[in-house]
């Protein structure tokens, strides 16, 4: 198999009338999803583009999935765009990817206009009767591209291929025994990379996706009642969403009744909350997943079976069967228990490249010999060590990249955007992982009398909501080190 | 009430909390805001917001939240 659409067509043949994706009372069967995608593909193909980026304004909606697969039928690769992202960030994605075709829903026309987009904009209302067949896909054909936070303030596009996704999803299903009867409770918005796990699991197995309406996550009791109503069997959520359910004693009021698998991904799951889940629901399968945007999915997993103290750190576990993970310190492979090294991943699931950025690609995607000949690997920037059971344990980031509310954020990007404001002379962004707050320390420009809140308000118009600092501290003078650089350590100590 | 407004302003300073009564149903607060909000309210007022209080109507306005906090404080 060389094209992910083979999964969709197989599911449409095997389970034509079964629900593929649902949101509230709206649903689409596998057969309907396939035909919608083929027809959308035909519309895009009329533009005459091939192997090009096609933007999809990725609303939390069933249509988004048909738009994604429509792009794939047209032999192009889709680029999901967060509809609520600041317009300047959207513009930079449109420019960087060079997209000439943009898809969305009719109401997205306002976004298209605000972008000043001069290419073609299509919606599912534009489809006719023409349908496309699965295109021939050879080797590393690109499938989709996600933009992640970039330290220069410019988001970077990670381009992934069919081959990597197929390799990943085959292994994922082998390891975790998913079946067509599974109902996936989707939490991750479709403009985030982690949602690909749900989408490709759905078409590979014939399982259904229930898109959980965003507002259900606001109230944990309402959320669990919704899981029961929709008979959801599997969730793969950011730990924050799971933690809040446990934290707020939801289970004394309502308990998940159909859930079988609980996976957590994106940040560290606090053990005390996981223990609360396990206390009430001991028979569920709990799995900690670790991956990077530069991979098709996860590379490491840990199934939680043993008892842990609340203060214990959850291991990242062992490498997936299709990945090899090496710890490297000062150019040497680390194998001793407890010794920290940077994680390097060797796998067929690695992304193709950082789009249009040969320099950054060469810095992170390396060819190295780990003792079995030269192989392509990804340098993660994550530091980890091995415990006595051979499980990887996360230590820290080797740079200023953080995980906050399930999102990967470069503090440098926040600094770059804040530093560009005329109100700010100089700034430094820090993250307190204990209280999970992003704090921006700022020296104001001469004559400016803005408050921290006002700066926060301006940043809200320029950054994605999860990147807006929780606090902006106005300071007269940022501490400097001997090299006249901002002394982060000193600031951290005062924070 | 001032302490509550301070918490709310830290989450979204651009909202008029005197008049806004659709914070949850109107998706003004996303799930992450709510998580942060509940945790900050519990810390600040030293209360526990039990599951029976987790209903949209108790969080749709600053006034509803303030009423809820007072009732919980009385109960505790």
Q: Explain this structure to me?
A:
The complex is a heterodimer of chains A (495) and B (76). Chain A is α/β, with parallel strands linked by helices and 495 residues long. Among the domains of chain A are: 5-159, Rossmann fold; 315-397, Roll (Luciferase, domain 3); 408-494, 2-Layer Sandwich (GMP Synthetase, Chain A, domain 3). Helix content of chain A is 29%, strand content 28%. In chain A, strand 5 (101-103), helix 5 and strand 6 form a beta-alpha-beta unit. Chain A is globular and about 65 Å long. Chain B has 76 residues and is mostly helical. Chain B has one domain: Non-ribosomal Peptide Synthetase Peptidyl Carrier Protein, Chain A (Orthogonal Bundle). Chain B has three helices and no strands. In chain B, helix 1 packs antiparallel against helix 2. The two termini of chain B are 19 Å apart. The mean pLDDT of chain B is 88. The A-B interface holds A 214-215, 217-222, 240-241, 244, 247-250, 252-254, 405, 453, 456-457, 460, 465-466, 470-471 and B 9-10, 13-14, 24-25, 27, 29-32, 34-36, 38-39, 48-52, 54-56, 59.
Topology:
The complex is a heterodimer of chains A (495) and B (76).
Chain A: H1 5-14, E1 19-23, E2 26-29, H2 30-45, E3 53-57, H3 62-73, E4 77-81, H4 87-97, E5 101-103, H5 109-115, E6 120-122, E7 142-148, E8 156-161, H6 162-176, E9 183-186, H7 195-205, E10 208-211, H8 220-229, E11 234-237, H9 239-247, E12 261-264, H10 271-280, E13 285-291, E14 298-303, E15 318-319, E16 323-329, E17 332-334, E18 341-347, E19 353-354, H11 358-364, E20 365-369, E21 374-386, E22 392-397, E23 401-404, E24 407-410, H12 411-419, E25 424-432, E26 437-444, H13 452-460, E27 471-474, H14 488-494
Chain B: H1 2-11, H2 31-45, H3 62-75
Helix pairs in contact in B: 1-2
């Amino acid at each position: 198999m060389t094209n992910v659409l083979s999964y969709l067509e197989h599911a449409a043949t095997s389970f034509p009338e079964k629900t593929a994706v649902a949101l509230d009372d709206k649903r689409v069967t596998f057969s309907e999803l396939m035909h919608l995608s083929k027809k959308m593909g035909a519309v895009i193909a009329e533009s005459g583009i091939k192997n090009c980026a096609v933007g999809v304004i990725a609303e939390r909606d069933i249509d988004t999935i048909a738009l994604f697969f429509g792009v794939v039928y047209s032999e192009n690769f889709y680029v999901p765009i967060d509809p609520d992202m600041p317009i300047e960030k959207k513009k930079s994605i449109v420019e960087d990817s060079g997209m000439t075709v943009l898809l969305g829903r009719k109401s997205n026309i306002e976004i298209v206009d605000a972008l000043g987009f001069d290419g073609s904009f299509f919606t599912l209302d534009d489809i006719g009767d023409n349908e496309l067949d699965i295109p021939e896909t050879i080797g590393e054909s690109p499938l989709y591209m996600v933009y992640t936070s970039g330290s220069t303030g410019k988001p970077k596009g990670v381009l992934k291929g069919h081959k990597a996704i197929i390799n990943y999803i085959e292994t994922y299903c082998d390891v975790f025994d998913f079946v067509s009867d599974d109902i996936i409770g989707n939490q991750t918005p479709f403009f985030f990379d982690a949602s690909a796990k749900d989408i490709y699991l759905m078409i590979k197995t014939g399982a259904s996706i229930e898109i959980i309406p965003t507002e259900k996550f606001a109230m944990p009791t309402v959320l669990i009642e919704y899981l029961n109503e929709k008979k959801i069997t599997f969730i793969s959520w950011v730990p924050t969403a799971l933690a809040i359910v446990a934290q707020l004693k939801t289970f004394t009021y309502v308990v998940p009744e159909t859930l079988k698998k609980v996976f957590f991904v994106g940040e560290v799951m606090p053990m005390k909350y996981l223990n609360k889940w396990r206390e009430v629901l001991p028979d569920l399968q709990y799995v900690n997943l670790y991956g990077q945007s530069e991979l098709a999915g996860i590379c490491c997993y840990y199934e939680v079976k043993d008892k842990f103290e609340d203060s214990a750190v959850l291991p990242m576990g062992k490498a997936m069967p299709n990945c090899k993970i090496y710890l490297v310190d000062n150019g040497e492979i680390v194998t001793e228990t407890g010794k920290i090294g940077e994680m390097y991943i060797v796998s067929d699931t690695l992304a193709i490249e950082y789009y249009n950025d040969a320099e950054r690609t060469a810095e992170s995607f390396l060819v190295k010999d780990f003792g079995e000949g030269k192989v392509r690997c990804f340098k993660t920037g994550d530091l980890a060590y091995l415990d006595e059971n051979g499980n990887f344990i996360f230590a820290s980031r080797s740079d200023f990249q953080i995980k906050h509310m399930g999102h990967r954020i470069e503090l440098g990007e926040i600094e770059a955007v804040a530093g560009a404001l005329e109100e700010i002379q100089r700034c430094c962004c820090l993250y307190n992982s204990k209280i999970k707050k992003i704090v921006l320390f700022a020296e104001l420009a001469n004559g400016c009398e803005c408050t921290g809140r006002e700066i926060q308000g301006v940043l809200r118009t320029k950054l994605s909501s999860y990147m807006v600092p929780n606090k902006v501290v106005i300071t007269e003078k940022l501490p400097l080190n001997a090299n006249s650089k901002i002394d982060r350590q000193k600031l951290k100590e005062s924070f | 009430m001032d302490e509550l407004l301070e918490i709310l302003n830290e989450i979204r300073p651009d909202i008029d909390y005197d008049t806004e009564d659709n914070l949850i149903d109107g998706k003004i607060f996303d799930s992450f805001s709510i998580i942060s909000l509940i945790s900050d309210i519990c810390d600040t007022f030293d209360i526990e917001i039990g599951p029976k209080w987790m209903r949209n109507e108790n969080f749709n306005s600053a006034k509803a939240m303030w009423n809820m906090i007072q009732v919980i404080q009385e109960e505790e």
